[in-house]
Amino acid sequence: MSRFDVSLPWWAWVLMGLGLAAFVAMVAVSILRNRGMKRSLFASPYALWMILFTIVPLVIIVYYALTDSSGNFTWDNLRNFWDSNYIRRMSATSDAARARYAVRGMSNMDPLIYSLWMAFLCTVICLVLAYPTALFMADRKMKRASSLVILFVVPMWMNITLRTYAMRILLVDDGPLITFLRLVGFKDAQLMDTPAAVLIGMVYNFLPFMIFPIYTVLSKMDPALQEAASDLGANPGRSLIKVTMPLSIPGVVSGITMVFMPAVTTFTLNVMLGGSKRLMLGNLIEQTFTKQSNWNMGSAMSLVMMVLILISLTILRKADPNNEGGGL
Amino acid sequence: MKKLVSLILCLLVLTACVSAFAADDNVVYVCNYFDYIDESVLELFEQETGIHVEYINLMDNEALLQEMEISPAAFDVIVPSDYMVERLIARDMVAELDWEKLPNAAQYTLDYLKNPAYDPEGKFSVPYMWGTLGILYNTKMVEGTVDSWADLWDEKYANNVIMMDSLRDAMGIGLKVLGYSMSSTNEEELFAATDKLVEQKQKGIVRAYQLDETKDRMVGGEAALAVVYSGDAWFAIDENPDLAYVVPKEGSNIWVDNMMVPKQAPHYDNALAFIDFMCRPEIARMNCEKIGYSSPNSGAIAGMGEEYAANRVQNPDDETVARCEIYHDIPAEVLKDYNDLYNEVLNAH
User: Which residues contact A36 (CB under 8 A, 6 or more apart)?
Assistant: First the structure.
């Protein structure tokens, strides 16, 4: 016996076995069909990885989301997401409990809405900040573009927790930002423990993910296009709106995806900068798994979030059908 | 076909390698919280006994329980808190201790911690550290005396109170300020406590809900009042002399962290040797001085002399101890209630 012993439920082993069998079968079929190595075989290490760490966990999440603690099928976890009082109301035995849980509980829906709203704001702010920056960096007359790129990359070498701790020094009540705001007349200015601080933290952490896809698309753009536009009489503003912007849409779409997704699921920033004053969906899921050990409810929450992200990605894909931005 | 066969062989070899990760016999797997030991103690133990210590950090009791459910033979020594001790005993997950092999623990454990309510016969647990839950306040930022949980509801401290983001402690304070037991399982009392905590938040008195961050933020003078454990209070006071700590007059929680041995522990004898080593007065004292909580070891206390005795944060007087209570484990069904109600508090706005 060692501490590497893992006891998983039997069906988890079955699932993993099936995954492995499917993989072996895939390889076998591809060899038999093509009589030898084929290029698609080069993808097999990734296929194995995907089956083990994408497909199997996904199946496990769906399984947990649709069962109760003793493993019986139930919709209750999902119903309880929509109405956090649902399970309590069903099991209420006293008048006090019936009265308290009579109306719809929002403690699961509220964090979801709040998270989506914060992620939306973060994405918009990032886009507004990133587009001009990317334009500036992609300008061929700019000799220092590469050093600018480095400036944006360097903070990303640091761990997110450390970065956020550094952020706190700027945001605390006797820090430079608040001192300045109070000097110019905002006597009650406060950033720490407010949604604004969480938003600042999110923008700070995710901005590079918006800048780089846009920068990549812009810097690859053929300068002849703008020259042609100006030859045909378009002033710089018009050529920006009519030529550069439409052509950079793939980069924008890719940037939005790369900012919005981590922004929806963020939770450390809420604890470290927001003082946990509002629950975000990430906090709720983390708590449900670790503190409450309720894997069923936690899986249901993750499932809802994954479906929402999938829907928004599908909508976004419509704007970049050929996947030119290299997005997900 | 050759390739297929070799591939399968590769996989088999890989599996064999993983499962052959056999146990080395002269080790002891100790699972404790992060930063909750004087690490030089581990070296002393290794030098003296030749037993190698594998030290594993976990975040909290709940993480420990989850880990033990997933792999019951992973640890030899665990350090759960009182209510978790009660649950582990009830679930038959821990081994009885052979007190013959624990002479130091038998000799030096404080009398009133020998047969605590969570382990009435003292068969399964040896106290490691204990402490109180109370209010840390900045004497320059408060008016009048602070001696009651009700001060956390005083509107003159609006936006100036840091509450503790920990289920049992947060709900316990809501219960205690209303005069109920901190381990209440009465539905109506829990509802009242929840409403009380929501009221505190909606009136804008709470600045933040924090756990690990509180200590630093109080040292930095970011809030007037905060709910903390006594050990954190001691460190904060050490760094900022404006701070003071009080155990509220209504009473509070005394928690005890205990060393235990899981039922399926692979190295039972090594585990006992480790536990008894930790109960040696000089070793217990090293840990106590590093961690800053209260020692349950009379030998260590004697060695620390008057300075420790005079330190009321670390060594509360008998009257304070008498008005405090140790948490009882909450039955799983009621604990779900606690969780849902606490979520209501965190989600209130």
Answer: none
